[in-house]
Amino acid sequence: MSEIVTTTTPAAPVNYPVTDEVRAALAVTLRGCEELLPEQEWVAKLARSQATGVPLRIKLGLDPTAPDIHLGHTVVLNKLRQLQDLGHQVIFLIGDFTSTIGDPSGRNTTRPPLTREQIETNAQTYYKQASLVLDPARTEIRYNSEWCDALGARGMIQLAARYTVARMMERNDFAERFKAGTPISVHEFLYPLMQGYDSVALKSDLELGGTDQKFNLLVGRALQAEYGQEPQCILTMPLLEGLDGVEKMSKSKGNYIGISEPANAMFAKLLSISDTLMWKYFNLLSFRSEAEIAALKAEVEAGRNPKDAKVMLAKEITARFHSAAAADAAEQDFINRSRGGIPDDIPEVNLSGAPLGIGALLKQANLVPSTSEAMRMIEQGGVRVDGSVVTDKGLKLEAGTYVLQVGKRKFARVTLG
């Protein structure tokens, strides 16, 4: 099958009134965003939508490169939900076809494509998790294999003819790799083309993405114009740094907070971010008004303990993905841990070999990676048995049940036979 046949041509421009409702919708759009391009075109689209009652089509595409969605993904999902609440049609696009190419964005090497089996496994959980942010009843779910597979070789060549190599090389990561002599595979040029073609197929009015997706989003605008459609506007959102405060949140970097993580783990991870990074998390993740956040920040700058604000953030996010009761319980669990208390949900371990040395016991209970690490933790006063600090590295425990603790967060209830 060849390319999609264009069935619409942009009509002559009509000037619709920019009402207070349109200005309010623009403010919602702009909150926390990095760029809105072109802003005046988006204002015109909003005005037209309000005057005609026709919702705008707003697209977000995610490649299922991992089975779980983390808080970094929810930066754009939150924005999508805000626009959804304004009455517009949200399209959650799962890039099951583009995942087989591999997104080169921000890469200095070729990204290995996923297998079909990996993609299908990951895609199964994507929308279920995204539904924790979006309203499922008002979300259109699409897979880009629907039109990409149908293109075939002829259609792919015709699509490639609509974009030049010179424009492709304007992309920073391609230009830098070319200058450094790092290989660029031809198939990598197809990724932004296929992502842009998604916008043609869906007749998108606005596409969202992280700042690293700006080039791909602009390709969508260019291709829509090539196909005689009104070009989409693009909205880029900042990339959220992970727990390390340096790299963007990523499961591969281990600095992420998954939205399906247990409430206690989510709460504790949020409390571990720095006092400085906390405000970016507030701006990009909190549903509090900008005025509320500014007032809270002023209180902290005036001397209020920043931990108070961080607890508020952690409880809000944890409640969103679990419940208010779960957030309260997670806060209490964190307090218990910080005071040396015992959490409610600790692993139960059954071991044999009593009497057993404390080092071997900690290792077999998976509380330390090695007996030497156990000895080091004992030296630092980081090991407790039933709440009492262990100072004797030669301690042997007889048969019985004990609560073992290593550091502030690792616990196990061990029954030794």
User: What are the segments in which pLDDT stays under 50 over at least 5 consecutive residues?
Assistant: 1-9
Give the count of structural domains.
3
Strand content is: 5-15%
Q: Helices and strands: which structural class?
A: alpha/beta
Question: In CATH terms, what is the architecture of the largest domain?
Answer: 3-Layer(aba) Sandwich
- CATH fold-level label of the largest domain: Rossmann fold
Main sheet: strand order: 1-6-5-2-3-4
Main sheet?
Answer: 6 strands, mixed
Q: Summarize the helix and strand pattern as letters.
A: HEHEHEHEHHHHEHEHHHHHEEHHEEEEE
Helix content: 40-55%
Distance between the termini: 69 Å
The named CATH superfamily of the largest domain: HUPs
Strand tally is: 13
CATH level-1 class of the largest domain: Alpha Beta
The whole-number mean of residue pLDDT values reads 87
**How does the overall form come out from the CA principal axes?**
globular
Oligomer: single chain
Counting H and I runs of at least 4 residues, what is the number of helices?
A: 16
What is Rg? 26 Å
Describe the structure.
It contains 16 helices and 13 strands. With 417 residues, the chain is an alpha/beta fold. The protein has 3 domains: 20-237, HUPs (Rossmann fold); 263-338, Tyrosyl-Transfer RNA Synthetase, CATH 1.10.240; 348-416, Structural Genomics Hypothetical 15.5 Kd Protein In mrcA-pckA Intergenic Region, Chain A (Roll), CATH 3.10.290. The strands form 3 sheets. A 6-stranded mixed beta sheet has the order 1-6-5-2-3-4, sandwiched between helices. 35% of the residues are buried.
